[in-house]
Amino acid sequence: MTTNGNVSFWYSDIGIPKQRAEMSGRVFADVCIVGGGFTGLWSAYYLKKLDPSLQIVILEQRFAGYGASGRNGGWLFGGIAGSRHRYEQTHDREAVLSLQRHMNDSVDEVVSIAERERIDADIVKGGVLEVAYTPAQLERLKEFVADEQSWGETDHVLLSAEESIARINVANTLGGAYSPHGARIQPAKLVRGLAEAVERAGVTIYEGTRVDQIQPRLAVADRGQVEAEYVLRATEGFTAGIKGLKREWLPMNSSMIVTEPLSASVWELLHWGGRETFGDMAHAYCYAQRTADDRIAIGGRGVPYRYGSQTDNDGSTQAKTIQLLRDVVVRLFPQLADTRIDHAWSGVLGVPRDWCSTVGLDATTGLGWAGGYVGHGVATTNLAGRTLADLVTGRDTELTRLPWVGRRVRKWEPEPLRWLGVQTMYAAYRAADKQESSGRATTSAIAKLADRVSGRH
Ligand SMILES: Cc1cc2nc3c(=O)[nH]c(=O)nc-3n(C[C@H](O)[C@H](O)[C@H](O)COP(=O)(O)OP(=O)(O)OC[C@H]3O[C@@H](n4cnc5c(N)ncnc54)[C@H](O)[C@@H]3O)c2cc1C
Q1: What mean pLDDT do residues 249-255 have?
Q2: Could you tell me the pTM of the whole model?
Q3: For ligand 1, which residues put their CB under 6 angstroms from it?
């Protein structure tokens, strides 16, 4: 029997947390952070490091780690969301190279803070492996690695089919790409451990407290309000639920399943001894990890978007999405045709209209934000937290000059255009994947068109 929803499998591992106290009445603080995921918690963590005297409160609608931070695929990796060329349009090449260096450093920073704060989040820095199993995917993989290297990512290397299979034995592998800048994590353990570390530093976390409106120096919640010099929005995929922000970032769904624990004899066939995070080069791509208890956790797009920017139902996932992800597992690893699926869940991530992440602070209103990580948030949230801490404390640093700082883009289209656009884009990606699976040697024109129309590339 597959458990459906219940926030995520990662909580069946550690238990759904008991909620902290709610906020009520009027509260005063120096900094109020809305949202208790990685963005909000890292911001609080680094703010306290820079200035321990700051009074900081976090307002969280459910519990810290309820959102994507407690549900993701556990890829802690240095990938930049969106096209580097877009960041280069507003800055220069050196600034984009610097962003990449800071992203790679963020992976090591998270690993080292987890160690320092004694957070056991099953972290293994085994790198990232991406595999091509159709000729068109192989063509894209080669272009991808060449592009990475042209941006100074010379650690990102192309692998032959044999080298790739030696790492992970994916059926029909034609080639792979490997980067050392990635680690596998158990996300709920990391986000819960971080919340405790932040509390130890003196930050107050109110849970079960939903913010409806954010204004300069004010966060209005269901049971009270916080007045603060700075109000930081850290609600990523849920941002559309706050008054006036419905079309800011599109709440994109991502869904995951996890297999039963696999036996040593199965792992002998699949390899995966290095615990690399793993993905493929399909247009509707998948992402996966080998968990600490020897399961495969794998995710991808099921129903990509719900009409009217609806967000979440405790991770509950449609039967057809579970079947779709199961089919992906069997396509990659035919040995697992009879393997049980123990848990399925979903979450939302934030997608800006230009698919590029952003962090910023308006010094006149005291309003700050970070997000739009487009599925690259596990490491990026750490960089966002460090950057917001610098901005709030008025420091001019390398981080505050990175090209994603203060980036503003237009809003998403109103409904029904928004819904129609995303449905059409993912239907196009699926059609393109199907064409490519039947032997097409180059990337399908349908996918190229979908990329252009959606504004992704
Ligand atoms: C299924 C899935 C798999 C993913 N896999 C990966 C991956 O492997 N690697 C990767 O890099 N990224 C991945 N991502 C993306 C990544 O998890 C997110 O980008 C990142 O966790 C965002 O962190 P956050 O703190 O900004 O947002 P969240 O973790 O979503 O936190 C926002 C918090 O704000 C709270 N909140 C929302 N609205 C309100 C309100 N009005 N009032 C009060 N509180 C509110 C929410 O309850 C939530 O706890 C994945 C995302 C999903 C959904």
Answers
A1: 93
A2: 0.96
A3: 34-40, 59-62, 66-69, 71-75, 210-211, 234-238, 241-242, 254, 256, 287, 299, 347-349, 371, 373, 375-379, 381
